[in-house]
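User: Structure please.
Assistant: Input sequence and predicted structure:
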Amino acid sequence: MRPNRLKSKTMIGGVKLAAAVVLTVAVAAGCSAEAGPTVPAATQEQAIKAVKVQKLAKQKIGDPLEQVADVAPVMQLDVMAKSSGDVKEILKKRGDQVNAGDVILKLDPADMNLQKEKASLQLRSSQDALVKAQQDLANSKTEMANSVKKMEQALLDVTKSYNKARNDYDQGLITKSQLDQAETLWKNQTMDLDLLKQKQKTLETSDNLSSLTNQIQSASLSMQELDRSLSNLEVKTPVSGILTELPVVVGMTVQPGAKIGHVEQLDPIVIKAKLTENSAKLVSGKQELVYYVPGSPDKAKAKIKYLSGSMDTQSKTYELELETANANGALKPGTKVQIQLTTEDEQMVVAVPTLSIVREGGDSFVFVLVGDTVEKRKVQLGRLNELNQEVLSGIKEGEQLVVSGQNQLKDKEKVQLAESK
């Protein structure tokens, strides 16, 4: 019986020990729950996101934008004949370089000289007739003046006789018939003098020489016209350039208004292009553009002569004209050149890697590091060049652009820089 009792005591002791262990564990667990869970320091550091940044700097987005343009004369004029005549001599040939005022050809002056001789004779004849008429008029005026004086003297004599007759009649020395006769003679003499004075006045005031004066003026004008026509027998070019047409031969008869030749002014010369709306915006406000002939390494600048302010409704383009010197004749009408709408400097822009751009709907954003936080910036994008894209607004040169982890960031979120490997 003693061994069983010993075994029973041993079991009871084991149970008590186990209970004590369980109680200890429970107390420990309770204490831990009251203090909260313990987080390792490494886990806390992982809560602040690590990002990589890149300093924004200008870079070349591509080569200058170019446009094909046409070379054209700055001016083209038809040379017209101003007088009629037969072509006597041709001094220039097609393709010659001519200067303003150069004589291209001469017309035969024979017919014109005959007309001038006739007009000269008519002018001299009219002048002689005027001189004779002026002398005759002067003589007539002198004779009229003398006649008036004589008539005035005769009237004085008749007036005296009439006055004497009136006195004699009052004294009864003459009859009434004799008085009436003296009065009638006085009245007739007075009327004759008035009539003569009216004739004198008409002679003095009338322009009896106007027809002859008009003839002289007409003959003078004819002479001037003939002199001008004679000078126009030498057909001259009005501008400098290349004589591209000369459709005349010696002996050919030409009339006023006939086309003698065609001159294209090539120095300066014009470069013309039609631009899209976007291209016109690139050119607007500029004074000159760079151009070059395809295949040539040489580049030059041309002044902007004209840029249309409104779009052509048919072609949907804007007209551009450049003007440049062409003293050596290197630029030929009808050829094409390349014009650069932008400069090398304009190709240097602020650009970002395309992978740094966060797109939300139709908008584009990037993140910029400011201190230890990031700012979410809405940007306006421009040209694309492989892995980089131009930014027109939203960020500026020198700022720190987030280039990794940006898709998990929020505006004003605190971040840390990732360690470089």
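The two ends are 80 Å apart (CA to CA).
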